[in-house]
Structures are given as C-alpha cells and as structure tokens.
Amino acid sequence: MKKKKLNLKDIKPNSEKEHSHDDGHDHSGQPNNFKAYIPAVISFTMLIIGIALDYFDVGFFKDWLRIIWYAIAYLPVGFPVVKEGWESIKKGDVFTEFFLMSIATIGAFIIGEYPEGVAVMLFYAVGELFQNAAVNRAKSNIKALLDVRPNEALVYRNDDYTSVSPEMVEIGEKVQVRVGEKVPLDGILLSEKGSFNTAALTGESKPDTIAKGEKVFAGSINMDSVIEIETTKEFKDSSIARILDMVQNATARKSKTELFIRKFARVYTPIVVFLAIAVTFLPYFFVDDYVFRDWLYRALIFLVISCPCALVISIPLGYFGGLGAASKNGILFKGASFLDAMTKINTLVMDKTGTVTKGVFKIKEVKAIGWEESDFMKYLMAIEEQSTHPIAKAIMEYKEDGEDFEAKDVSEIAGKGLKGIVNGKTILVGNKALMLANNIDVPTETDSIVESIVLVAIDNKFAGYVVIADELKEDAKETITALHKVGIKNIMMLSGDKDSITQQVARELGIENAKGGLLPEDKLNEVEILKQNPNNKIAFIGDGINDAPVLAASDVGIAMGGLGSDVAIETADVIIQTDQPSKVVRAIKIGRSTRKIVWQNIGLAFGVKVIVLILGAGGLATMWEAVFADVGVALLAILNAVRLQRMSWK
C-alpha cells in the first residue's frame, strides 16, 4: 500500500488548517475568534429592532425605509452566501445549499416577507458558526497529536550538542533529550534507563520505563533525567509522523453510509428544486382561487427545507467524532469505513504470540532434583550465558549471583542443546534427545509438560529442569469474556507456536477453536476457508509482521504494537497502540456508538424534513418552521454527534 509522505511543514495546528466536508461548506472560519460572530450580531440586532418597530407599528418605519433597513440587516449574513452560490454556479455546480438559501431568502424579499428573509439567512449563518465549533471540538484529540510534534532535536555534532529541526537529523546520530522535552525521533536508548510519558501516542497515562538498548518513540515526553538516544529512523518515517499522517487523512476513506448520503443529496436537492417550481405554477391549472404570491411562498419554504445540511454535515462529523474518540483511547482507524466495518464483525481470528501473550519468555517453574535451587541455577546460568537463544535470555533473568561459577569448553550440539564444564563438573543443558544420547534417565513427569522445557544433567546425572513459557497479557482473559458479551461468539486462535502450547493457552482463555504449528500461508488458508461462508465478517488480530497476508485478507485487519511495527502500520486497517487486546472490544463499541449516532441523525433529518415539506406544500408551515427543519435539525444532529467526545467505553 503506497502511503503519502508526510512533510512536517505541511502540518499546521488545527486553528491554521482549512477544513472542508466536500459538501460545499467552508469551515475555515475561526469559531473562537469573535470577529467571526460580528456579522451575525449585526444582523440579529437589526432584525430585532426591525421586528419591534413592526410590532409597535411605528409611523416612520414604512415603505422604502423598512425595505432598506431589512436589506442592510440581510447583507452581513446574506452577501457571503449569495457570493458563494454565484461562484458555485460559475463552476457548474448549481444545486448547492448556497443557491437554495439565496433563492429562498431573496424570494422572501420579493414577496415582502423581509423579516423572514433576514431570519432564515441569520439562522443559517449561526448554524454554520455552530458547525465550525463542532468540527473544532471533534478535532481536539487530533490537535493534541499535532501538539506533540517535536520542534527541535539536540544532535551531537562537532563535539557539541546543536539544536536542529528533527527533519535534519540522520539515522545513527546521537540525540540528547532533556527532562520535560519531547523525543524528536525514533531511536535506541543509550542511557541506562529512562521514564517516558507516551499518553499522546498510546492513550495511556502511566509512564513507561525503558532500559538501555530498548526502543524510544518520537513524541514521547522524557520524565526523569537527561537521556541520550541513537536515531534509527528519519523523522518522516518515525512513528509519530506516520500516526499524524494516518489520522490526518483518515476521513478521506469515507464510510458507505457517508458516500450514499452524499450521492443522495446531489440527486435529492435538484428534485426538490423542480418540485418547488411545480408547487409555484401547477396549482394555477387546478385551483380556482390561485394566488401566485401564496404558492411562491410555499415553494420558498420548500426550498429552505430541502437543504441537505443536516445530513451532509452531521454524518461526516459523527464519523470524525468516532475517529477522534478512538485515537483518544489509543486506537487508530485508517478511515471511517473501518468504523462501520467493526460493527459488522461476527468472527474474530487471533494470533497467539504478541497478541494475547507478551511474546517474551519467562521462567515459569524451576525443579531441582538432588540440588539446592540456587546452586542448580548457577550451573545452568553459567552455561546459558554463552548462548544468544531467547530461552537463554529468559534463564539469565533469574535473580541469582553466579559470579563464582565459570563455564569452560562450552559447545553446541546441533538440535539438542549445550555441553560444557562448570567448576570442574560436566554440564548438559538441552532437550530430551540430548539426555537420551548421553544415557541419562529423564523422569516421565516431563513428558506431560507442554511448554518449552530445559533439562539439566550434572556429571551425567539428571539434576532437574526449568519450564519456560510466554506470559499471558494482563487483560487477555477479560478480552475473551468481553468479546462474548458484545456478541462475538466465533473466536479462533491461529499460531505458529507448537500445537500443544497453543491448545493450552486457548484452554486458559476459554477459546474452543485453536490451531498451532501453522506457517503464515497456513493461517491465510484457514481465514480463506472461513471467508467461503458469506455470512462471516472476519477481523484478524496479529502483530503485523508474519501475519501481514492475513491482516490484508480479513474484512478488518487489526495490528498490535502499531508504534513498533512498520508492517502493522502499512497493512492493518486498525492499529492498537497499547498492545492491549481489550482495546479491540473498545474499538467495536466505539464503532457501534458512532454508527448508532449517525443513523439517529439520518432518521431525525429525514423525519422532520418530510413532515415540514408536506406541511409547507399544504400551506400549513411558515418560513419559521422551514428554518427549524433546516438549521434547527442540523444543530440538533451536530449536538448529537458531539456526544461521542463525551462518551466512555469500558
């Protein structure tokens, strides 16, 4: 998948960027800037004064003075809309809401309904201001991401630290980060340890403590002491740059609901325009007491109501709110379409290592036979110190000082293990085949252990074993329970680990369907078999590296460890930044809440519009009801969409 390269200079804070819904609206105004409200305030003040003068039938407020007064009241809010409508017509786009509002309000002036003409345009302008504010509110979480952009990097050059733009730093350079500063680029920690606030990246407020040699991500805030890192990526390829790029462009991938509403609005609007023309002239042939002014007034009401504003604004805003709420919770959707897709998932397939387990070997059990555990482990650690195998690393984390135990003549026996001399004793460390090859009896109890097991013999006598296992993530069990509660009954685990271990983990989690010992292509085949049933809507959760083919083939690909995995960012549709499988449940809930609000807005907009359209055509609704059907419903829909920013999903 080809991605757009991110240029830091192109990213502006929210207040500087123009926002467009591609619906003819221009939301580039600043709702927090009082200047944006001045035209509406002027029009409102003059409208109220004019209505008061009409109500008290003031003598001088007649004829041309009255017309000029309301015309001046109309201009501050009406002129920009009329101008925009004219510009759209010149571009060949006639049936915009600007055109509709212009025709309806100018028509109201023509038939002498001056206060209503001003009021319709005023409420429309106020609605636009509210929409601007709502869009800004929905963008607040993404603006928080923009605020964590590092502005400078202290890079070591010419025997001194020099402040430069992060874009100017090359791979392999040493960068210093002071307390309270943002890490400017992805890198490896050179200092002994560091504590980092990664809340803006992962949604987690708990500081993350990192040891020397571990990865540090751009955008993290250094909490503890001055640290040094060695950069591993250029800024344009860093985690924060990719996340910014993805979130900024997420709304480009429209949901099917959104696309349908936009297409519908483009057909619906001209139909209503022609119906309004019909309402004006057709009654002449069927009504005895036909009065042109009355039927024109009904047609103008028809035009005001026909604006699809509530639909084309509140629906994208609903999805934008869902995307923002998800990013606040450490979940990145690559587009609104995947918010929709998450609501339809009924089958969940998951990897084991790195998804429900931590992907790190830990000692689960130490069994020494005929030896003190501490001495037994010292002999074992002395041998394993010579190995780089992940199991050896897990054994070396055992808390025991073995400095007086030194291994000599250590050799590797292919496929079986290690042999060496420690303090004059011959040590064998490895699997059962190694023991049998040296005529060492192994207790039968070891045969029932499904996890990785390291057998140890000292001076040709069995001395014990160590069980090594991958740890379950803290929220793994609750995730499976929560998935069942949200209606995901079909859960399957596919793993490259040996089948016995996979089955044991599945039993611990309560997953009935599990298969181990699979290659990447085997996993893909299993998912393809599931896809043969058209009723299955499949999400796959993996670590995004070996599972890339399955992530791409699933209806929704969900990647764990998005900050650290290039393949996850590129291939998956949804990124769980915190590595917590429980966030998948939250992603489903956010998708469902978003879809619910979107359909509430569709029902509200259509329901009210149809009712007022019928009343308007029958002469039972005035321009004021038309204003509510357009701007009022749009505002209600927007307020409903903004609720997503206040929701909590646990």
Description:
By secondary structure, this protein is of the alpha+beta class. 46% of the residues lie in helices and 17% in strands. The chain contains 21 helices and 22 strands. The strands form four sheets. The chain has a seven-stranded mixed β-sheet with strand order 10-22-21-20-11-18-19, sandwiched between helices. It is elongated and about 120 Å long.
C-alpha Rg (nearest Å): 34 Å
Unreliable runs, pLDDT <50, ≥5 residues? 1-32
Main beta sheet, described? 7 strands, mixed
Fraction of residues in helix: 40-55%
Number of helices: 21
Shape: elongated
* Widest beta sheet: strand line-up: 10-22-21-20-11-18-19
Q: What kind of oligomer do you see?
A: single chain
First-residue to last-residue Cα separation = 33 Å
Kindly name the structural category.
alpha+beta
Portion in strands: 15-25%
Q: Average the pLDDT over all residues and give the rounded result.
A: 82
Task: Set down the secondary structure blueprint.
Blueprint lengths: L37 H18 L7 H28 L6 H14 L3 H25 L1 H8 L5 E5 L2 E5 L9 E4 L9 E3 L3 E5 L1 H4 L5 E4 L3 E2 L4 E2 L4 E5 L7 H10 L7 H26 L10 H15 L2 H20 L2 E3 L2 H8 L3 E4 L6 E12 L4 H12 L5 H7 L10 E7 L3 E6 L2 E6 L1 H6 L14 E7 L2 E12 L3 H10 L4 E5 L4 H11 L3 E3 L4 H12 L6 E5 L5 H6 L2 E5 L5 H6 L2 E3 L5 H36 L5 H20 L8
Parallel strand pairs: 11-18, 11-20, 18-19, 20-21, 21-22
Antiparallel strand pairs: 1-2, 1-3, 3-9, 4-7, 4-9, 5-6, 5-8, 10-22, 12-17, 13-14, 14-15, 15-16, 16-17
Helix pairs in contact: 1-2, 1-4, 2-3, 2-4, 3-4, 3-9, 4-10, 4-21, 8-9, 8-10, 9-20, 9-21, 10-20, 10-21, 11-20, 15-20, 20-21
